[in-house]
Design a protein that fits this description.
This is Transcriptional regulator TetR C-terminal Proteobacteria type domain-containing protein. The structure is a single chain. The two termini are 35 Å apart. Helix 2 packs across helix 3 and helix 3 packs antiparallel against helix 4. 61% of the residues lie in helices and 0% in strands. The protein is mainly alpha-helical and 126 residues long.
Length: 126
């Protein structure tokens, strides 16, 4: 559906606008509200909840969505998707998790006292 809307949005701009407003933007608003609640509860330190929600969505969605769109849904496994979600969440919490005893660039997830395990995947560029 998303591919169809993207492909036809120049001919049917109202369709693209509606998908943006009722789909993607609505999801970001829901996420921003959750970030705002977590910030008010003292779990996160966030100045701009809308920006933080956009950053979180980008961290966890960018690679899996683009891979699925360009290579087909069957090319990414549930394990890979879970890895993207975990690493995106870790990155988000490194930036926004409220922990006054942490060193810059580190975080501890609220549900554990152990530091995050670094990714063992090596990416090589030509």
């Amino acid at each position: 559906m998303r591919r169809l809307i993207i492909g036809e949005s120049s001919r049917f701009p109202d369709l693209g606008r509606l998908y943006w407003e009722q789909g993607f933007t609505k999801g970001l608003t829901t996420l921003a509200n959750a970030v705002r609640d977590l910030s008010k509860a003292g779990h996160l330190t966030v100045a701009d909840t809308d920006q933080a929600a956009s950053q979180f969505a980008a961290l966890i969605l960018r690679i899996p969505v683009n891979q699925a769109l360009l290579r087909g849904h069957d090319t990414i496994t549930d394990t890979e998707i879970a890895g993207h979600i975990q690493r995106g969440t870790d990155a988000f919490l490194t930036l926004y998790h409220r922990n006054t005893n942490r060193s810059p660039g580190t975080h501890q997830h609220p549900s554990t006292s152990a530091p995050p395990t670094p990714s063992t995947k090596t990416v090589r560029t030509p």
